[in-house]
Amino acid sequence: MTRLEDLLVASAERSPGSTALIGPDGVERLTYAELDAVTDRIATMLVDRGVAPGDRVGVLAAKTPWTIASLIGTLKAGAVYVPVDSASPATRVARIIRSAEPSVLLADATATKLVDGLVAEGLSDLTVGSLEAPLAGERFTSAFSRSDVESLQATRPDVGKDPLAHLLFTSGSTGIPKGVMITHDMVSAFVDWALGHFGTKPGDRISAHPPLHFDLSTFDIYATLAAGAELHLVPASLGLDARKTAAFIRDRELTQWFSVPSVLTYLARFEAVAEHDFPALERLLWCGEVLPTPILAHWMRKLPHVRFTNLYGPTEATIASSYYDVPVVPADESVPVPIGVPCAGESLVVLDEGKPAPVGEIGELYIGGVGLSPGYWRDREKTDAAFVTGPDGERIYKTGDLARVDGEGVVHFLGRTDSQIKSRGYRIELGEVETAVNTVAGVRECAVVGVDLGGFEGTTICCAYSVAAGASLPVNDMRRAVTALLPRYMVPAKWDVLDELPKNVNGKIDRPVLRERFRPAPKESE
Ligand code: AMP
């Protein structure tokens, strides 16, 4: 078993003076020796504050070198980190905190309002450590400033076999986020495979684009630390600026870029990438949703020197379970790129009514092997429903994805069996959005559907609702109310207020009809 923090320790022994982390501003840097020392001291500080092996440490902070250090410091304390989106509303974060029961929360200035919101939600007995000295105040019980940790001695408590490394909370269809348990072994198995497959080496300059509450970020962090390479934290503010994102890849001379497809689509649509751009770039990887083939072809034509790889996998089988190295620019841009073949130690099984589907036939995709999570945090029922026994008696995860395996054993993704969607790479259960809309006073009935309107964000979230007799609930008021309950990326982009929602013959809300309502009417000439 490899513990994730040992990947850092080994690289720090091999090349203490090499740069490990470079902050979004390009100025803040930590060498391997510095990161190793700082994380030792953070561990000591946590242990001194009573954090025991297996305890959870919540992290509400922007992605800075200091935040990354706090994650690894948590692991060195034998504890389990829970990165939470500090841009989420306090009501949702409070549910996550109540479920994870962290003994300490580490927060930075970006989360000050959120921490106040958590207290207002009734979480008044939280121990909140500040990741920045100036925040030490009423709510913040300890300051994790650099000077504070300088004098501490390293602590490394003993932990058991394959302990948890972190909990990642994903959208839950009933409105309650689900905590996926991620162990050290799950991540290190993928890192092992990825280092060999991509040939990651010291001197590589690797992007860290996805947010820390998203499992893709763990690949960036631990594969970089294992290889002794440089991790370049991408500023969150670049999110909506294609040219600045391209300039970042160029100026930092990145050798690896990894993100969700919507970022690549965005850069392509805004023509931000020149012919033979990014001469240092060796590989471009994406994961999390379908990258439209025309966009991939655009990138491949612009950057013939780069290797392009599609990675596929759910958080429950961290990080990716399969890969497809795209051999040449796709000739037919109407054909989706396969999700490929299993990474080492993983298995992909397509089942039709519990039996392996014949070659070429559509079935439901299940995943087995070394990346499988032990399940959902403190939720036996959901765990048992999603992690089941396969035809050969093996433990497999029911992804909810539809797929087929072709004659060469290559797997093709064909959509979902349920109402989980991806929007800008975020995994969203439409049921969670619906639950939030239904809690707004004055709503009689509502339905939330995902519609592909051809935008670069992927599926667009659309909500139709009707209003209770005597109530008034215009769209602006509704949007405001829902924004207070859900993270921004879950708030419907399109709304429709109806007297009555359309029903099918069984009296259920007719979602296909609603989806059509949200599609723009074809132009006269079409
Ligand atoms: P997440 O847990 O956020 O990684 O979401 C997992 C889901 O995202 C999968 O079950 C798929 O529906 C989708 N997904 C992940 N990677 C890909 C990919 N490369 N192509 C298509 N869909 C993907």
Output the CATH class name of the domain at 4-238.
Answer: Alpha Beta
**Helical content class:** 25-40%
Structural class determined from secondary elements = alpha/beta
Oligomer description: single chain
Tally the helices: what do you get?
15
The CATH architecture of the domain at 4-238 can be named as: 3-Layer(aba) Sandwich
Domain AMP-dependent synthetase/ligase: 10-377
Organism: Actinomycetospora corticicola
InterPro entries: AA_adenyl_dom, AMP-bd_C, AMP-bd_C_sf, AMP-binding_CS, AMP-dep_synth/lig_dom, ANL_N_sf
Domain AMP-binding enzyme C-terminal: 432-508
In summary, what is this structure?
The protein has 526 residues and is of the alpha/beta class. Helix 1 runs parallel beside helix 8. Residues 432-508 form the AMP-binding enzyme C-terminal domain.
Task: Explain what you see.
The chain is of the alpha/beta class. 29% of the residues lie in helices and 25% in strands. Among the domains are: 4-238, Rossmann fold (3-Layer(aba) Sandwich); 420-518, 2-Layer Sandwich (GMP Synthetase, Chain A, domain 3), CATH 3.30.300.30. A hairpin with a 2-residue loop joins strand 23 (420-423) and strand 24 (426-429). Helix 2 packs across helix 3 (65-76). The mean pLDDT is 91. It binds adenosine monophosphate (AMP). Adenosine monophosphate (AMP) is lined by residues 170, 215, 287-290, 310-315, 339, 399, 401, 413, 416, 422, 427.
